[in-house]
Design goal:
single chain; mainly beta; 3 helices; 7% helix; 63% strand; globular
C-alpha cells in the first residue's frame, strides 16, 4: 500500500558566545553556553489509514483497510550545554545535558482492519510494538548530546573564498527510567462501532490506554535507551563580507529519523544594501517533496534579525524561522 509521511520539528534555542574569554588558556578559544527546547514528531502512514482517519469507514464496508508499514514517534526534550569556539574560524563545539519530557514510539509491522458487509463487527489484526514514557515527573529521562558547527573555507581566486559549514545538532542518547513496552501479535474483535462514532465518543481514540492494553499480548515496564533525532546539515554558505551583490548557496540536511528523507536545497542571496539582504531558495525531500521559500535579514553594528520560511508557496506544510543575534 502507498506510504505517506508527516513531520513536525518545533524548537527554540538560545546561544551565548564570549570571545573575550581565553578558554583553556588558549587565545583562540572562546566560551559557548546554550540552551533549547525541542519537539520532534514524525509519522509514516498508509493511504488506508489516512482515508479512515479523515473520511470515515464507509468506503471500507465489506473490505479491508491496510496499515502495514505505518509508524509514529514523538519526542520532546530540553537541553543545556557548554563548549568552546574558535575565534578565528567561528567553529564551535558543545556537550549538552538532555532532559526528556515525553516519548512515544510505535510501528505496525503488519496490520489491517476488516469491516463486515453488515457493519456488525470489526476485526483488527496487528503485529507490532510500541513504547511510551510513563510517570508524573517533569523529566522522564536524561541523556547527553553533542553539537558541532564546523566552518572552513576554500580559496576560489585571488580575492574570494568559498565558505562551508558542517552542522550537527543533538547527536546523542537519553535513558528513560520507566517506559511501557507494548507487543501485539494477533487478532482482536471490536464491537460494532463505526469509526466516526469512535472518534466522536468514548472510544479507542479517546481512551488510548484501554485500547493499547486490549490489543497487546505483552506489556512490560522497563528502562529504555532512546536515540535523539539528531540533525546533520552541510551548506555552502554566502560570504557576508563579499563585494558581490548576488551569491549562491546549496547543501543537504538529514535527521536520524525513518520518516525524514534527506533534503537537498539551494538558492540565491541578494545584497540589496549594506544592512539588508533577501533571498529565495528551493528544496526537495524532508517530510515533503518540492518546496520553495524566501528569507530576509537586516544587519546593524550590534544587532541582526532574520525571518525565513522554507515552505512559502504550496500547501504541503508550514515553516517559519526567526533568528536574532546581538553583540555587546
Amino acid at each position: 500500500d502507498e506510504i505517506n509521511r508527516f513531520g513536525v520539528d518545533l524548537n527554540a534555542e538560545i546561544e551565548y558566545k564570549n570571545l573575550n574569554i581565553n578558554l583553556f588558556k588558549d587565545s583562540l578559544k572562546g566560551l559557548v553556553i546554550k540552551g533549547g527546547i525541542y519537539n520532534f514528531s514524525s509519522m509514516l502512514y498508509s493511504k488506508d489509514l489516512f482515508d479512515m482517519a479523515f473520511f470515515g469507514n464507509e468506503m471500507f464496508t465489506g473490505d479491508t483497510a491496510y496499515f502495514t508499514g505505518s509508524q509514529f514517534t514523538n519526542l520532546s526534550f530540553q537541553k543545556i550545554g557548554v563548549g568552546w569556539l574558535n575565534k578565528k574560524s567561528k567553529s564551535s563545539y558543545s556537550l549538552n545535558f538532555i532532559g526528556v519530557n515525553n516519548y512515544l514510539n510505535g510501528i505496525f509491522n503488519e496490520g489491517h482492519l476488516y469491516q463486515s458487509q453488515s457493519v456488525d463487527s470489526l476485526e483488527l489484526l496487528i503485529f507490532g510494538e510500541g513504547e511510551r514514557s510513563k510517570g508524573s515527573s517533569y523529566f522522564k529521562g536524561f541523556g547527553l548530546a553533542f553539537d558541532m558547527d564546523y566552518r572552513f573555507k576554500m580559496k576560489k581566486n585571488e580575492k574570494d573564498f568559498i565558505h562551508f559549514q558542517l552542522l550537527l545538532r543533538n547527536l546523542g542518547v537519553a535513558y528513560m527510567h520507566n517506559t511501557d513496552h507494548y507487543l501485539a501479535n494477533g487478532v482482536s474483535t471490536i464491537q460494532s462501532y463505526e469509526v466516526n462514532d469512535l472518534i466522536n465518543s468514548e472510544s479507542i481514540f479517546n481512551n488510548p490506554d484501554d485500547f493499547a492494553n486490549g490489543i497487546s499480548d505483552t506489556i512490560i515496564t522497563k528502562g529504555s535507551l532512546v536515540i535523539l533525532p539528531a540533525m546533520f546539515q552541510f551548506t555552502k554558505l554566502i560570504d557576508n563580507h563579499s563585494f558581490h551583490k548576488i551569491q549562491g548557496f546549496f547543501g543537504f540536511r538529514g535527521y536520524l529519523n525513518n520518516a525524514y528523507v534527506p533534503m537537498l536545497f539551494g538558492g540565491l542571496d541578494y545584497k540589496a544594501t549594506k544592512w539588508f539582504r533577501i533571498g529565495a531558495h528551493g528544496s526537495y525531500g524532508g517530510f515533503s517533496q518540492l518546496r520553495y521559500g524566501m528569507y530576509a535579514s537586516v544587519h546593524f553594528p550590534h544587532f541582526n534579525l532574520g525571518l525565513a520560511s522554507e515552505n512559502l508557496f504550496n500547501k504541503t506544510g508550514e515553516s517559519i524561522i526567526i533568528k536574532l543575534s546581538c553583540a555587546f
